[in-house]
Design a protein that fits this description.
Helices cover about 15% and strands about 50% of the residues. By secondary structure, the protein is of the alpha+beta class. It has one domain (about 5-125): Pnp Oxidase, Chain A, CATH 2.30.110.
Length: about 130
């Protein structure tokens, strides 16, 4: 969680009144104090409407080394009380291109946070263990 730069975030799309899974890659950071994942998105993006309709999401990290991945099946997403600048600052520590984003107009960028209780740790494509997010 400390080194991985992206999560594959799954939510439910309700276009045409049919619920469909919708997955996208999101740059994020994990706050070891609050035990939450934070990311930003553009205001009025389709994913914001999905989050408003259903606060339940799932995600997995994109492994960097040793083929380790974290997978979470049942998480809650909501707008964050942190500012967009706070979130962008933390993400830019892992991903330098966010320096350009935070130096521009961020008035249309909305911060989100993801809360979860349990993670599944996977190594070499095999399930290893469930861990509490505490």
């Amino acid at each position: 969680m400390k080194e991985s730069t992206q999560i594959a975030l799954a939510s439910l799309s309700t276009s045409d009144e049919v619920m469909k899974p919708n997955v996208r890659l999101m740059c994020f950071y994990y706050d070891f104090t609050t035990k939450k994942i934070y990311f930003c998105t553009f205001q009025n993006s389709p994913k914001m409407a999905e989050f408003e309709k259903n606060e339940r999401v799932a995600f997995t990290t994109c492994p960097i080394e040793e083929h380790l991945a974290v997978r979470v099946e049942d998480a809650i997403i909501q707008r964050s009380s942190k500012s967009a600048m706070e979130v962008l600052e933390e993400i830019s520590k892992k991903i330098s291109m966010f320096d350009d984003i935070k130096s521009g107009d961020i008035s249309n960028i909305i911060p989100y946070e993801i809360s979860f209780d349990k993670i599944h740790l996977h190594a070499e494509h095999n399930y290893v263990v469930d861990l509490e997010n505490s």
